[in-house]
Specification:
Number of helices: 11
Order of helices and strands: EHHEHHEEEHHHEHEHHH
Strand content: 5-15%
Shape: globular
Helix content: 25-40%
Strand order of the largest sheet: 2-1-3-6-7
Structural class: alpha/beta
Length: about 280
């Protein structure tokens, strides 16, 4: 029940697993013994606080099973660290890969948790040498750590963002090579793809630029960019389902109106790819 309607309940996501993967995905569980479309991505693909996220909306429109492999706060590493999921995604007729932030993957400066990619694990000797005045044991989340580093030295922080960009491109190329076939790269946010690098305080997905996406264009069937309309953004949390405790988190995310816009844009691209 939505907060606007006076309810206090949280949304039921029907968590499920696929194959031998240890990751809990959003259910109800879909059958994978026929044709299906696979959706990889982060919080937006998972559809946190949204009863019918865009993969579920597209299942009705495409009349084919749409499997939501999205995970809250996921990065590219989550998929590369799970061969069982990668095999299932490779078996899909079409794959939709949401553009995920570059901060949520391990690189030469720091390591993230293999399944909870927003969690900071440790700094490398390289990062320690770049920021010798920082005690990295105080950080638990990547965004917090990056914000502190930028505040200390924007000049030194440029070396970190350069590393993140290179790591993101390399890791994305690896993912696209493994899943093969018909892939749609999908940007879904409340803002357009930026021309230049933004800081840790910006909106997700962090540190991904238009040049980075264009680098991948030859490797995919299509690039779909959906920027939520002013009308959808103005809806706020209307129609979202969350408890009082989750209200602040819900306010940071796109709601049902934006998911309908995403489904509409993807339907036009996916229909011929699924049924040709």
């Amino acid at each position: 029940m939505s907060v606007q309607d006076g309810g206090q309940g949280a949304l039921e996501y029907h968590p499920c697993r696929y194959g031998t993967s240890r990751i809990l995905f959003r259910g109800p569980r879909r059958l994978l013994d026929g044709a299906y479309v696979a959706f990889l991505g982060a919080t937006e693909t998972y559809g946190r606080f949204v009863e019918q996220p865009f993969p579920a909306l597209l299942e009705d429109r495409l009349t084919v099973s749409c499997v939501n492999f999205g995970v809250v706060n996921a990065g590219v590493d989550l998929y590369l660290n799970d061969p069982a999921v990668m095999d299932l995604v490779a078996g899909a007729r079409v794959k939709v890969v949401q553009v995920m932030g570059a901060q949520t993957l391990s690189n030469r400066f720091y390591a993230v948790h293999p399944r909870r990619n927003d969690r900071f694990l440790r700094a490398s000797d390289r990062l320690g040498a770049l920021y010798p005045e920082v005690d990295f044991t105080e950080f638990h989340f990547v965004r917090h750590m990056l914000g502190r580093l930028q505040a200390i030295s924007a000049g030194r922080f440029a070396a970190v963002t350069d590393e993140l960009r290179m790591a993101w491109i390399a890791r994305m190329k690896h993912v696209l090579t493994q899943i093969r076939g018909r892939v749609v790269l999908f940007w879904f946010a409340d803002h357009a793809v930026p021309a230049g690098i933004t800081g840790p305080a910006a909106r997700d997905p962090l540190f991904v630029t238009r040049d980075m996406i264009e680098t991948l264009r030859p490797r995919v069937q299509a690039v779909v960019e959906v920027v939520a309309s002013d009308r959808a953004v103005a809806e706020g949390t209307r129609g979202m389902v969350f408890s009082d405790f989750e209200a602040c988190a819900a306010a940071e995310l796109l709601g049902p109106a934006a998911h309908h816009e995403a489904a509409q844009a993807l339907e036009d691209v996916l229909m011929p790819l699924v049924w040709d």
